[in-house]
Design brief:
Elements (H helix, E strand, L loop, with lengths): L1 H26 L8 H8 L6 H24 L5 H9 L6 H18 L13 H17 L8 H8 L4 H8 L1
Length: 170
Amino acid sequence: DMIDRRLEKYADILVRWGAQKLSFLDSQLQVAEVDRDNVEEKFGWLKGYREEIKGWEALLEITSSVESFVRSKGLHKGCHKDLQKQLVCLAITEQSKRVRSELLFFVAQESLKAKPGEVLVGSSEVIESSFGKQKNLEGNHATGGFTSLLLALGAIVAPTTTEVIQKALE
């Protein structure tokens, strides 16, 4: 997972770099201070990859949109329909359309696990943040270790009304 994240990060950096350089090549005719021959010599080779870079940009945009959607909204019944609306204009190549379809199918399948009205966490960030808060609380108040404040974890992630507490104790 860590290697996948690094590859994704570097792919994103390289694709964005290529897109920026192509944009610069396309607009350099309007910039008087630029040595056009020098720029063409160094970056002209990118023109041969224009379509590939556009396709890779679309793939990155789709995957980051899906990741952001699931991270911020979680998974719930029918959420793939809202996600589909966000992805309509992003798929410009056959490959990006295929990836979009596969990701939408995956989100639809995972959202079936949610009960009606339930939202499932779509990212480990919530859990990591909760444990961070738990450790902070433990560091400030606990001398007996993790277990003495374990019930506080529930208070960190859920509403703590009288009814909720009563039901949890029962």
